[in-house]
From TrEMBL:
Transmembrane segments: none annotated. This is Small ribosomal subunit protein bS16. One of its GO terms (biological process) is translation. Residues 89-99 have a biased composition (Low complexity). It comes from Devosia geojensis. One of its GO terms (cellular component) is cytoplasm. Pfam families: Ribosomal_S16 (PF00886). Residues 85-137 are annotated as: Disordered. One of its GO terms (molecular function) is structural constituent of ribosome.
Length: 137
């Protein structure tokens, strides 16, 4: 049986509240669990001590018997000093998609066009020569 330390959602619509639980990996997110280890309230300020409440002793026990923590719970355990979490690195995540890149290139081309038109020497009308003025009268 594969065990997971994970979050189980509680709370009402648009007011999330999570229980940190140990559950069988095959059971549904809010379904049956083995033990409740703590709570997580994302609506509280990050510096509020009630935001994450965790029974560190029991969490350490479950980790020692082979339970795997999910990414979010792993962050909590790292903050509590129970687990060392390696920082993730996804350099492609921040890159814009193909359409956004295309729009940015079009915008840059238009801006360059306007700048070139603005800086181009203005053509002044050719001054008429005195011979042309005489014939025009």
């Amino acid at each position: 049986m594969s065990l997971k330390l994970r979050l189980a959602r509680a709370g009402t619509k648009k007011r999330p509240f999570y229980h940190i639980v140990v559950a069988d990996a095959r059971s549904p997110r809010d379904g049956r669990f083995i033990e409740k280890l703590g709570t997580y309230n994302p609506l509280l300020a990050k510096d509020n001590e009630g935001r994450i409440v965790l029974n560190a002793e029991r969490a350490q026990h479950w980790l020692s018997v082979g339970a795997q923590a999910t990414d979010r719970v792993e962050r909590f355990l790292d903050a509590a000093g129970l687990l060392k979490r390696e920082a993730k690195n996804n350099p492609n995540k921040a890159k814009p998609g193909a359409k956004a890149t295309e729009r940015a290139e079009e915008r840059a081309a238009k801006a360059a066009e306007l700048e070139a038109a603005k800086n181009a020497p203005k053509e002044e009308p050719a001054a008429e020569t005195p011979a042309e003025e005489a014939t025009a009268e």
